[in-house]
Amino acid sequence: MQRLFIAIPLPTTVRDGLRQVQLQLMPQLRGVSWTKPETMHLTLHFLGDQPDDLVAKIADIVVCVGSSTPPFQLALQRLGAFPSKRRARVLWVGLQDRPEIDRLHARLAVELSGIGITAETRGFKPHLTLGRLRKRPARVNEVLAGFEGVLPKFLPIEEMILFRSRLLPTGAEHSPVISAPLKGAGIPDQTLEG
Prior knowledge:
single chain; 4-stranded antiparallel β-sheet; globular; Cyclic Phosphodiesterase, Chain: A
């Protein structure tokens, strides 16, 4: 069995920008396990533990979907928390709601269901996890609402990676199984350019 997920990697500039956001929030929010910048990603599908004999089929799906999906980009929009700011457990940066990301997520779900993998039942909310709260600090709502730092502007969606994840005492370790560039035909995404 292998613990797997499909995700969009973050370029260094976006990771560095998100690290700056974390550094600005750290003094105000205690009890947060901050995501290491090198492990930040946009999760498309968490697949959980999968049999070894399915890994090649999952990799084929990732490559196939990537080859028919044109690259695009998403704007980073706001800070938030799951399940809510009042009962925060996960701090995140929300991404622009665009049909391209929803189509990519849905296409993967359909293809995965064809090999017996059921997609998560909760709705897909594209986000980048900044940290997980070990305990609920007071003022999360106030701190997030009052954030005056600068978020990175855009996240280019240019490749997907099938990751293997191992849970270690020091945190999760992610290693790529296969990378699939998005290279489908389409009009280059100019809608977000300044």
